[in-house]
Amino acid sequence: MLPTVLITGANGQLGTVLVPVLRERYGHDNVIATDIRPPLAGATGRFSLLDATDEESLRQLVRGEGVTQIYHLGAILSANGELNPLHTWRVNMDSLLNVLEVSRTEGVERVFYPSSIAVFGHHADLSCTPNHSVLNPTTVYGISKAAGENWAQYYFERYGLDVRSLRYPGIIGHQSAPGGGTTDYAVEIFHSAAAGQPYSCFLQSDTTLPMIYMDDAIRATLELMEAPTASIKVRTSYNLSGCSFSPADVAEAIQKILPDFEVRYAPDFRQNIAADWPDRIDDGPARNDWGWKPAYDLDRICATMLDNLLQRAEANSEVKD
Ligand code: AKB
Which intervals hold domain NAD-dependent epimerase/dehydratase (predicted)? Predict the structure, then answer.
């Protein structure tokens, strides 16, 4: 029996790409995209305006549509979160607790909760952070994700709600724009390169962070959500790894394809956030429990991003001509 799926934050970087994939897989009528903002231009399919901090509206939608799975993607990310910490805490926690509580009481069978490398911070081994590391996050986003992971585990252990979670690294894709994160540079840099412009990077050249290509992130999400229940051994959140690189590494990889590309460095407050995040993370439990294996390294990410963005730029210039 196909699930009936509801996605919060569907207009975001991940949701924009995940929704069509879920529709392809589970049927167009079985996937309801929701967001606090109206659908993006050109978006098709079932859509409801929804603020997940409003428990009653969420409950009505879940009950009315007979929702059996929720992907709760809506959240305020690390950099934007620091602009208004208490608001970020309320949005991120209230929406999660509403999703968990509505799921428990309305018979939702499975919930996906994205966590992040932002849960790590002081006292963790940042050179290759283990799954079961100490969590001392330094941003309100990281604090909310660390608390959320524990709530996910609590709802599983106390109520048997099947909540599954991944700690995403920075996600890099050509299809959608990231919004308000510390890893956003790794998408912006490709847009500048493809536009033939220099890029001004808000992190230092040597700041290595874990990253993942969009297709790998989507595949990991589906593999986790479709894995047999018995193979899910981590009920807080799984470390998920793609590859790790610094701004200097990605600039060099782009220059192999576009030799004239230039990067300048103008670190801002996001440098302090990145400094407390891992260089790389150990995703051994994800590999062992449900067979995770990434397919994209830095060179493949570079080639795929530039290929797609250059084709788009060319198509746009033909339309203008
Ligand atoms: C951010 O930079 O805040 C996000 C994340 C790593 O969770 N991309």
Answer: 5-233
Measured in Å, residue 116 CA sits from the centre of ligand 1 at: 6
141 as an active site residue: the answer is yes
Please give the average per-residue pLDDT across 127-155, as a whole number. Answer: 98
User: How far apart are alpha carbons 142 and 206 in whole angstroms?
Assistant: 22
Q: Are 115 and 163 in contact (CB under 8 A)?
A: no
Of 113, 141, 185, 238, which residue is the catalytic one?
Answer: 141
Q: What is the pLDDT of residues 232-273, one digit of tens each?
A: 999 999 999 999 999 999 999 999 999 999 999 999 999 999
Per-residue confidence band for 319, with pLDDT thresholds at 50, 70 and 90: confident
Evaluate whether 171 touches 15 at the Cβ level (below 8 Å). Answer: no
Confidence grade of residue 15 (pLDDT, cut at 50, 70, 90): very high
Nearest atom in ligand 1 to the alpha carbon of residue 183 is: 2
Helical ranges in 66-213 per DSSP H: 78-81, 85-106, 140-159, 185-194
Distance of CA 27 to the CA centre of its chain: 23
Ligand 1 pocket (Cβ < 6 Å) reads: 77-78, 116-118, 141, 168, 170, 181-183
Substitution candidate for ligand 1 out of 14, 73, 78 with most atoms within 8 A of CB: 78
Q: Which domains does the chain have, with CATH numbers?
A: 5-120+132-172+214-239 (3.40.50.720), 185-209+242-320 (3.90.25.10)
Q: What is the pLDDT of residues 67-98, one digit of tens each?
A: 999 999 999 999 999 999 999 999 999 999 99
> Is the pLDDT higher at 41 or at 304?
304
Q: Given CA atoms 205, 123, 241, 16 in this order, what sign does their dihedral have?
A: negative
* 141 CA → ligand 1 middle, Å: 9
Res 223 pLDDT > 80: yes
pLDDT for the residue numbered 70 = 99
Q: What angle do CA 34, 238, 205 make, to 5 degrees?
A: 90
For residue 237, how far is its CA from the centre of ligand 1 (angstroms)? 15
